[in-house]
């Protein structure tokens, strides 16, 4: 039987690469549902190729256009709206859900998928950043596996497979350092969104690429690693590794370090999440260790305030990571549209952390309220 896959965010970077993986293994995987937010033409094109049972366009304004684009394909059901995302992941035939949506919007459908006992292939890091304790509790309650798709967390996962209950002494979380790794603080005052979108090693969506340039992306990955692997943040060390060859590593109680290496290709962690514990053939480049040295540096927390703020949000706990995520989504978009300076990203997030209502023991409703409040505060601060 082919595994039926629902891809939340099929038109983004992760979604399109996941479809390439499925295309390479048509005997093992089949697309049950594809979803997008605004890219209606891309979604229709994907639907024509993969012929899913259903498609969902989250932005209802595009529903009529999608219906028109697919009017001759009467076997594909077409839905629209955010509630449709929550409902489609519960469909009986679905075996696994790839959560490749960007931002807070991925939280609700992920919760619905867990409650429907679907295997979660997690590419939406904000889900664990915002509500890690809730998600891990639900996964345990419903006996649902959460398999990481981020290259770093997949590397950590691959490094601990077979280690049983052996104690993790430290997680070594690698970061490329982004395009501004060698910039001075003075130089960073004038960088533009176009500069920030020129990532040296990875091809990603614009939101994640900006987060990588500010190193907020790495801060979020620290939070994600804490929940995925049950390791406190003080045992997670960030290493700037410009070559992006060592995707991350784990140090054990005896001092041994295990790492996963490979070329920068997101299809590998996507496929591993789909196929675990099996390793399937994958077309693509292979790593040549003779080509370049492997370098590692400590991150500069003075230059990259966002990474420091992420660690601070873990220290405070409660809904503070949710506050940081909401503020970051606002200023990330603001920076891309010229409404905020690059260094202003960290300043607005820090001030939002100081002003938003802190809750040490949040529930789902608290997260919804916190997200709305933090977005409002960050917007006001950015527009001053």
UniProtKB/TrEMBL annotation:
Q: What class of enzyme is it?
A: oxidoreductase
> Per the UniProt entry, what are the Gene Ontology biological process annotations, in alphabetical order?
isopentenyl diphosphate biosynthetic process, methylerythritol 4-phosphate pathway involved in terpenoid biosynthetic process
Q: Which GO terms describe its molecular function?
A: 1-deoxy-D-xylulose-5-phosphate reductoisomerase activity; isomerase activity; manganese ion binding; NADPH binding
* Residues annotated as binding NADPH: 11-14, 124, 126, 205
> Any keyword Magnesium?
yes
Work out whether the entry's keyword set contains Calcium.
no
**Protein name as it appears in the record:** 1-deoxy-D-xylulose 5-phosphate reductoisomerase
Organism lineage: Bacteria, Pseudomonadati, Bacteroidota, Bacteroidia, Bacteroidales
């Amino acid at each position: 039987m082919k595994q039926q896959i629902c891809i939340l965010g099929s038109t983004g970077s992760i979604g399109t690469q996941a479809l390439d993986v499925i295309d390479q293994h048509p005997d093992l995987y089949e697309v049950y549902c594809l979803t997008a937010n605004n890219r209606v033409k891309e979604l229709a094109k994907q639907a024509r190729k993969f012929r899913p049972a259903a498609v969902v366009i989250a932005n209802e304004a595009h529903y009529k256009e999608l219906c028109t684009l697919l009017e001759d394909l009467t076997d594909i059901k077409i839905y629209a709206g955010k509630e449709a995302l929550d409902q489609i992941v519960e469909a009986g035939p679905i075996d696994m859900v790839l959560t490749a949506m960007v931002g807070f919007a991925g939280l609700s459908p992920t919760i619905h998928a867990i409650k429907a006992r679907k295997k979660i292939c997690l590419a939406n890091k904000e889900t664990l950043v915002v509500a890690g304790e809730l998600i891990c509790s639900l996964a345990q309650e419903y006996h649902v596996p959460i398999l990481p798709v981020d290259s770093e967390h997949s590397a950590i996962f691959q490094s601990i497979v077979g280690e049983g209950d052996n104690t993790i002494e430290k997680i070594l979380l690698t970061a490329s350092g982004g395009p501004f790794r060698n910039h001075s603080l003075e130089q960073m005052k004038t960088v533009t969104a176009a500069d920030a979108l020129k990532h040296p090693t990875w091809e990603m969506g614009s939101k994640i690429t900006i987060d990588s340039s500010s190193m907020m992306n790495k801060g979020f990955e620290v939070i994600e690693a804490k929940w995925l692997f049950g390791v406190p943040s003080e045992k997670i060390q960030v290493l700037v590794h410009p070559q992006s060859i060592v995707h991350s590593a784990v140090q054990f109680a005896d001092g041994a370090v295990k790492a996963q290496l490979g070329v920068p290709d997101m299809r590998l962690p996507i496929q591993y999440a789909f196929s675990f514990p099996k390793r399937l053939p994958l077309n693509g480049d292979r790593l040549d260790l003779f080509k370049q040295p492997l370098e590692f540096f400590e991150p500069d927390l003075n230059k990259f305030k966002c990474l420091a703020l992420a660690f601070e949000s873990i220290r405070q706990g409660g809904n503070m990571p949710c506050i940081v995520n909401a503020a970051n989504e606002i200023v990330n978009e603001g920076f891309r549209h010229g409404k905020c300076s690059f260094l202003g990203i960290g300043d607005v997030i820090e001030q939002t952390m100081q002003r938003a209502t802190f809750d040490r023991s949040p529930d789902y409703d608290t997260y919804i309220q916190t997200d709305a409040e933090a977005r409002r505060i960050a917007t006001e601060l950015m527009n001053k």
